[in-house]
Design brief:
The chain is mainly beta and about 140 residues long. It is built from one helix and eight strands, in the order ββββββββα. The longest helix has 15 residues. It is globular and about 40 Å long. The model has no long low-confidence stretch (mean pLDDT about 80).
């Protein structure tokens, strides 16, 4: 898959923080990296990452690793907000390498876990993610 029509790898897009987490308790297993939001899907998000590895861990599930990959997305904080209220979790369901003009980038699709976080917090965070993806400022 290529990104020839427009260079998605270099495009300025809204961003959030992305890390891989353990399946049983959703504790981070990698550090956070900056991911750009390409678009939102009905049940998740499509992100652009500069690298396929975080702390030596490959984002894509491969032949030798049958463990499903779960990710934590943390939206940027505004003011003095705690990041705990700005997180969503999901399963990595698709991974593509895109060829950019200068360097490749990696498109990652995440389907959100429906019961994490609790409903009210999840709805508020999803609304904020939608505003962020559209490039709209959050209300004060």
């Amino acid at each position: 898959m290529t990104a020839r029509r427009r260079d998605i790898c270099q495009e300025k897009l809204p961003y959030l923080d992305f890390c891989l987490v353990q399946a049983d308790d959703l504790q981070p297993i990698t550090s956070e990296v900056r991911a750009r939001i390409q678009n939102l899907t009905k049940g998740g998000a499509v992100l652009i990452l500069a690298k396929a590895f975080i702390d030596g861990v490959h984002i894509l599930m491969d032949v030798h690793n049958i463990t499903r990959k779960l990710a934590q997305l943390t939206l940027p904080a505004e003011g003095g907000e705690a990041p705990e209220g700005l997180r969503l979790w999901g399963e990595v369901v698709r991974f593509n390498r895109l060829e950019g003009e200068g360097a490749p980038c990696f498109q990652v699709e995440v389907d959100f876990i429906r019961d994490k976080p609790v409903k009210e917090t999840r709805q508020r965070t999803m609304k904020r993610l939608t505003r962020l993806a559209k490039g709209q400022p959050a209300p004060e």
